[in-house]
Amino acid sequence: MKINPVIETLLNHRSIRKFKDQALTEKQIRILVESAQAASTSSYTQSYSIIGVDDPKIKKQLRAIASDQAYVEQNGCFFVFVADQYRNKMIGETSGESTAVLNTTQRLLVALGDACFAAQNMAVAAESMGLGICYIGSIQNDIDKTSEILHLPDFAFPFFGMAVGYPDQHPEKKPRLPFAAIYHHNRYNPAPDQNSLKAYDQRVADYYRMRTGGQREETWTSQIADGLGRPYRKALKPYLERHHLGLR
Known about the structure:
Layout: H1 5-11, H2 26-37, E1 48-53, H3 56-65, H4 70-73, E2 77-84, H5 86-95, H6 105-128, E3 132-136, H7 143-149, E4 156-165, H8 179-182, H9 194-211, H10 220-228, H11 236-242
Antiparallel strand pairs: 1-2, 2-4, 3-4
Helix pairs in contact: 2-6
């Protein structure tokens, strides 16, 4: 089967962590946001918002929260995807309807899903335009500070950021898990092929060794195991509770 340009764009994805000093135009930003809006949305609620950040001071503040990653500050534009129930709350109150349903786990999952669908549409659109992207989950490192910087109301959760801009690097593609480890036919297979995982570990180790000039020696399974022993971002649950975001 012939690979079309859309699939080729998807398969060639790379996270870009170094951008040229060139801002996105208003037209580019509009195209990216409208592409994000074209994504599927659960029950048409559109329970997300996108904050485009080009103010150098705000970018610098977000960089400090996000583990001092330079590309949070140095990019064409930095977008923050917000799981947003505030808009729906305002609609409910204006209409005289109860908004109690917004403070449920189901509605939080809807908002998180909507934000993810929109973001991936934006990512693909950006890459199709010759731009690069990098998702930034570390804006959650200090969730209260991020919320304060962005002036978020209750019922809104800053889920992740996305740095977008003109790539100033062309990294190798990061290996993904074998097809058989991800794809399950008809029913879940709880016993993945260990040989394929071992082969994948070797590919990942080779990738890190090449990318870092031999400075990083790590397999995928060791990276996952190490992460399991390091709980973090414990402020997230209290934040969700204080902001009426879906814990019942």
